[in-house]
Amino acid sequence: IQRNLQIRIEEHAKYLEKMFDQQNRRMNCLKKSEPE
Q1: Start and end of every MYB-CC type transcription factor LHEQLE-containing domain (predicted)?
Q2: Number of domains in the chain
Q3: Residue 5, domain extent
Q4: Which segments of 1-36 does DSSP mark as H helices, in order?
Q5: What does the DSSP 8-state code read for residue 34?
């Protein structure tokens, strides 16, 4: 049971990382398009 939980946590972490990366790219695009 614990091993399954570990795998699930790792998969979730990868998923969160992917989402975070996409958000970062979007923010970077917004920053680039907006002159300071």
Answers
A1: 1-25
A2: 1
A3: 1-36
A4: 2-33
A5: S
